[in-house]
Specification:
The protein is an alpha+beta fold. It folds into 2 domains: about 210 residues, CHASE domain (Beta-Lactamase), CATH 3.30.450; about 150 residues, Alpha-Beta Plaits, CATH 3.30.70. It is built from 11 helices and 15 strands. The two termini are about 40 Å apart.
Amino acid sequence: MAASKGQGEDRLKKLRPLGLGLLVGAVVFLLSEVLIHLEKSREYEAARSRLQIEASAMRARLESELNSTFSVGLAAASLVSAKPDFSARDYERLAQSLSAWHPGLRNIAIAPDNVVRYVYPLAGNEAVLGVNLENIAEQREGVLRLRENWKPLIAGPINLVQGGVGFVHRVPVIVLAADNTARYWGLVSIAMNTQPVFDKVGLNAESDVSYALRGTNGKGADGDVFFGSEALFASPSAIRMTLVMPGGDWQLAADWREPDRAMKWRAFLWHVLALLLSVSAAGLVAFAARSQERLQVLASHDSLTGLANRHQFLVQAESFLALAARQKYPFTLLNMDLEGFKGINDDYGHEVGDAMLVHVAAKVHECLRASDLIARFGGDEFLVLLPDTQPGPVLDQLIVRLREAVAEPLTIRGHVLSVSISVGIATYPADGFSLADLMRVSDFNMYADKRLRKKDGAQD
């Protein structure tokens, strides 16, 4: 059981450098991942800032162009309000001057009491003349709301009476009667094709940014999508902005058309480097920790048998002696010397001799407790310190087991070899109060045991 416990402790000691290396590797990996996350966040924010700039510029161009076009209706309504008895020639000159600089403007229509009486240009728009806008199902709601609220409205995209699909901007015309009371006179209607406007501002151009617009009938975020992909408004990475116009709002969504593959590759390489760095750090730390432990072992243990060396034994024995003196309990020191080892070394070489020393160390270690201290003190000399042990049957049985274990033969290179031990015993405090006294007594008793064994062997 003691041997099993000792083996468990040895395994833990062997695993400690690996565990330390894994811990350091994990810390390095986590720190690397944090830095990667921060760098990715920085790049994401930079990309989003660029997207914000692109979208803001597009919104500014769209608002400028659309408001410029829709301002035609506001200007026309103001002039008609000031002179409701204008002539056809007056209207034509007005419409011609207002529409000259607006490529998306399809026509300007004036509808007294919501019935279209004037349209410019007439060519291509003849179908709208004389139409009561309140009788067109698709436009009735907006026209009636305009008559009631006296506020500009954007309608569309709708099917135009004159053909095609477009947006209509309607502006109420309010005139003052002789008694200075305001009344609804009719409306000015601007029909607009968005394609030329979108082309002019670059909305249809191939670029790195994808755009979408929604806000049918000027409803902004509540309106349907009429340009681009509807999925763009659901994308968490897209930027959304509101276009403010007289008569309603649109909403613009923008996102990068293609993901930044370069950034993804960089992030992938960063993760690989982080993994390699953490593995390298783990390996270096584990190697350094194991090397440090090996240096400590070499400094305190015999390189051949793995037992404590002379220096380590003396240090631990002095500490143990001080503890025994304070707590008043006995212990025993065994001095063991190999018999027959010199002949094996001389006859079979040092390699076989070293194998025999390892064999003896292992056999002695098997007989001892985990609390006992064993050391290789010299060439073939071993010292054992047995805490809380004094002369008696228990010690006698242990010495018998040690003799039997050491005498077990070792088969090496086709030879069956064996050695025996001479044992000297010294007990604290009966044989001395210092380590030097105990070692002198045990050494004397070991040589006495050696002489006795030789004498017994000679008599046999």
